[in-house]
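--- STAGE predict ---
source: upstream dedup step, 1 unique chain passed
mode: sequence only
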Amino acid sequence: MKKVIAAMIVMFVTISWPLGGIWGILFSKIIGGGVEEGFIYPIYAGLILLTGLIVGCTVIICNAFQALRTGAP
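--- STAGE serialize ---
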């Protein structure tokens, strides 16, 4: 779970304020687009955060099932 949260924080920092310019310079060639597609970048950030949320919830559910299976409270 800590790794999921750490990955989400690293991607947020990479996309947002401190490293946002580097993100645009380095990855605009890979992601594609220019000024006209600039509105898509926040959607990428949202997808990354949503993916982290899904993985985090899956970890919690799997741990709950394991606890039920072993009989631990």
